[in-house]
Design goal:
Helices cover 90% and strands 0% of the residues. By secondary structure, it is mostly helical. The protein is elongated.
Length: 149
């Protein structure tokens, strides 16, 4: 049972953190090099349209399996590293919710209205917060790998 829960947990982390790494470190710089804002902004919006549902699934997997590990398996034996990972995960979820419900939606509205400068402002906000979440996700991964259960 433990190996199944860990596998689900890791799959959620791989999809979310790996997707952020790809978007932040590969897709965005390539899009900037090749496309002008009128083409780049819709590309990034469409990419987020496809990625964000997977983030919601990942969040569900990470939280459900994480609480399964914390409450159902480790209980009072959970080390401080588990509580640190839990805290960071909750911060990451809060940051994602902020992105999803504010700048991401505002970016879509701006694109529909043809307001490219405003869409660019919102994409910049999304990019900054994804950068923070990426760092938090990588730090959490390092903590989890360095301090096994």
């Amino acid at each position: 049972m433990f190996s199944m829960i860990i596998t689900l947990h890791l799959l959620g982390v791989i999809v979310w953190v790996g997707g952020m790494f790809f978007a932040h470190m590969a897709l965005r710089p390539a899009a900037i090099e090749v496309l002008e804002p009128p083409q780049r902004l819709p590309l990034m919006k469409r990419t987020l349209d496809r990625f964000f549902p997977w983030v919601w699934v990942s969040i569900g997997l990470i939280l459900a399996s994480g609480y399964g590990i914390l409450i159902g398996i480790l209980g009072a034996n959970a080390g401080i590293h588990v509580h640190i990972m839990h805290s960071i995960a909750l911060i990451m979820v809060a940051l994602f919710c902020y992105i999803y419900f504010l700048p991401y939606r505002q970016m879509g509205q701006a694109l529909q209205a043809g307001d490219l400068p405003q869409a660019g402002v919102q994409l910049m906000a999304i990019r900054r917060i994804i950068g923070i979440n990426l760092i938090l996700g990588l730090v959490t991964t390092i903590i989890g790998a360095a301090k096994p259960f």
